[in-house]
Design a protein that fits this description.
368 residues, alpha/beta, TIM Barrel, 13 strands, three-stranded antiparallel β-sheet, eight-stranded parallel β-sheet, 2 domains
Length: 368
């Protein structure tokens, strides 16, 4: 009896994690009670012939609710659904920690991310990411800095990979806002990467249209005036690394619109932040869907990494916006009557108590 109670409590707790269950058991119970037709022929000794019960019979004293819970998400065909994960996951391979490796594996197997951006790092970390479902040449963007260490990383000098191995793309973050790279040095770095890895893409992220144009446009606009860029650089894609608007309002889509106009199809990937954009996931992912832009989840500094809170919220909204499919498993909640009235006519939710949760093998795919 004690083991059964502990099992029910654990299942109930797991299924109460946000976004695991879309239709809550309590709501379903209320709906079932409101639709239930009183029938005096029901008693605690009679069987309802229309009920498919785990126990084999049901009376007015028992109610069963089908509850569908998340198993996994999967990116839809043709969708690029990317993530820059927390360092706990990025560096899981070299840690040797099976829990961290499992968290890394879940990025694709549970949450549906089919592309990843991570620092090149050491061989163990790279292979752990590859084994999690991210082939280097097709689904793995390497994050590098615009310096000699970045050149060495791209050339596989110390990471244990074959010199001929190349990543799908190479990305450098905020060359102006963070790294303070000159236009000349940025172009030289880009040229080195492109010549070394001609089959790979090269892109970068910046905080505004102006700091982005600074490297790619000639002339470029800066602090109210136009300047000549003697080293304009061609890139394959640009991304926005600012998560508020120009006046610190929550919505950064004004920046996205500017970059979209300035770069057209080269602005085809967008960062959405775990920490800064939680209240806007639905809206920002909707923008991506409407504009045929691939959403990338900036989870690097996710304060809730261990609990998966932001991952579950983000992926649920990505499912609603048609980026993901959702696989669910059926659980049966069995409620017993504990009230003092006739159970066939008592529709108050407080008169019913959860007595068991049965995990079934039945699954379904939701594909909006």
């Amino acid at each position: 009896m004690k083991e059964k109670k502990e099992r029910i409590l654990k299942l109930k707790k797991d299924l109460e994690i946000p976004y695991v269950v879309i239709e809550k058991p309590e709501k379903l119970l209320v709906e079932k009670l409101s639709l239930r037709k009183p029938n005096k022929s029901f008693s605690k000794t009679l069987t309802n012939p229309y009920f498919n019960s785990v126990q084999g019979s049901q009376s007015c004293y028992t109610l069963e609710i089908d509850v569908w819970a998340l198993v996994r998400y999967e990116a839809k065909s043709g969708i690029e659904f990317g993530i820059l994960p927390h360092t706990n996951r990025q560096y899981a391979g070299s840690s040797g920690d099976p829990n961290r490796i499992q968290k890394l594996n879940e990025l694709k197997s549970k949450w549906g991310f089919n592309y990843i951006l991570a620092n090149i790092g050491v061989y163990e970390n790279i292979m752990a990411i590859v084994n999690a479902g991210y082939p280097i040449a097709t689904n793995y963007i390497a994050g590098i800095s615009c310096n000699q260490a970045g050149r060495d990383a791209a050339a596989n000098v110390w990471n244990g990979l074959s010199p001929s191995t190349y990543f799908w793309a190479y990305y450098t973050d905020e060359p102006y806002s963070n790294q303070q790279i000159t236009q000349y040095d940025f172009k030289q770095f880009r040229n080195y990467i492109v010549q070394l890895r001609p089959n790979s893409l090269f892109g970068f992220g910046e905080t505004t249209k102006y700091s982005t144009n600074r490297y790619t446009h000639n002339p470029y606009f800066w602090n109210g005036a136009w300047y000549i860029n003697y080293n304009p650089t061609s890139v394959n894609f640009v991304m926005c690394t600012r998560y508020v608007g120009y006046y610190n309002e929550n919505d950064q889509t004004d920046l996205w619109n500017e970059l979209k106009i300035s770069y057209q199809n080269k602005f085809n990937r967008i960062w959405i932040s775990a920490n800064s954009d939680g209240s806007e996931f639905n809206y920002l992912l909707g923008y991506c869907k409407e504009n045929s832009i691939s959403p990338w989840f900036y989870q690097l500094e996710d304060f809730e990494d261990n609990s998966d809170v932001m991952l579950s919220q983000y992926c649920y909204h990505a499912f609603l916006k048609n980026f993901l499919k959702r696989e669910e498993k059926k659980f049966i909640y069995i409620y017993y009557y504990v009230g003092s009235e006739d159970p066939c006519y008592d529709y108050q939710i407080t008169s019913w108590e959860l007595g068991d949760i049965i995990e079934t093998s039945e699954t379904r795919i939701l594909n909006p």
